């Protein structure tokens, strides 16, 4: 496909055919010319400024969260939690903690993606035992839970890449729901921006202030995501070619 073309959803009919625009020309294309999922990948960009007058409706936002919830994770341990902020005052506090990035206050919904810290993953930790219990035939069989938990702990002890810790392992898991949420948003004509640019201690103190049960002993902050509707045109994607980033061993 010619690079000069750019793609967009007809946001008023996000489930219908796509529109391709090139200069003053506009082509309507049928869904099976380029499937809707591929179009979503084209549509998604790191949105720097959202239209503050547009809010994501509850059902659409739950669809985005569901994509996060259903994401795969190592050993199925789902070591994440999603904090959703749609309150303007709290978003303003968060903006100050995110190097004053405009996305934080102009977005409709801001998600703080938490990861579970290493102390959730010891043989006796309630979180690990409850998560593992879901996978054994008898949820009261403590021996089976011990064995399955130990299987995971052996992986953590011997299977992680060089220099990686349990906290790294846990934080990495969160990038999978993050990506799935952004793609799902794009599929529904909703924009997003991942934000790794935040001051960790400031975000923690905002969480502690607004969520009395929050404990930085239990959770760390992995990544933030802003969702809303774009106000500016999307710049072209800058990417290496498929050839540059791929090696086949056939
Ligand atoms: C982990 C991660 C952290 C990011 N942090 C920020 C950020 O703090 N602020 C921002 O504007 N964009 C941020 N981005 C967006 C990237 O800059 C953007 O995805 C990249 O430049 C490619 O542009 P595109 O997504 O529009 O194709 C982040 C992306 C990722 C994956």
From TrEMBL:
It comes from the Bacteria. InterPro entries: NfsB-like, Nitroreductase, Nitroreductase-like. Keywords: Flavoprotein, FMN, NADP, Oxidoreductase. Pfam families: Nitroreductase (PF00881). GO terms for molecular function: oxidoreductase activity. This is NAD(P)H-dependent oxidoreductase. Residues 43-208 form the Nitroreductase domain. SUPFAM superfamilies: FMN-dependent nitroreductase-like. Belongs to the nitroreductase family. The keyword Amino-acid biosynthesis does not apply. It comes from Gilliamella apicola. Its cofactor is FMN.
């Amino acid at each position: 496909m010619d690079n000069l073309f750019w793609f967009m959803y007809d946001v008023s009919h996000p489930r219908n055919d796509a529109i391709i625009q090139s200069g003053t020309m506009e082509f309507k294309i049928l869904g099976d010319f380029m499937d809707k999922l591929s179009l979503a990948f084209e549509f998604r960009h790191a949105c720097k400024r959202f239209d503050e007058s547009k809010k994501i409706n509850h059902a659409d936002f739950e669809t985005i969260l569901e994509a996060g919830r259903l994401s795969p994770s190592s050993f199925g341990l789902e070591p994440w939690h999603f904090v959703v902020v749609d309150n303007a005052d709290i978003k303003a506090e968060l903006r100050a903690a995110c190097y004053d990035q405009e996305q934080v206050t102009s977005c409709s919904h801001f998600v703080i993606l938490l990861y579970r810290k290493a102390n959730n993953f010891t043989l006796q930790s309630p979180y690990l035992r409850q998560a593992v219990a879901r996978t054994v035939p008898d949820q009261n069989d403590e021996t089976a839970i011990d064995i399955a938990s130990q299987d995971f702990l052996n992986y953590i002890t011997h299977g992680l890449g060089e220099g990686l810790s349990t906290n790294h392992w846990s934080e990495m898991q969160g990038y999978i729901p993050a990506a799935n949420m952004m793609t799902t948003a794009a599929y529904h004509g909703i924009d997003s921006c991942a934000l790794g640019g935040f001051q960790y201690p400031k975000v923690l103190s905002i969480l502690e202030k607004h969520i009395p049960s929050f404990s930085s002993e239990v959770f760390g902050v992995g990544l933030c995501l802003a969702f809303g509707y774009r106000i500016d045109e999307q710049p072209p994607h800058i990417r290496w070619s498929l050839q540059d980033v791929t090696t086949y061993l056939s």
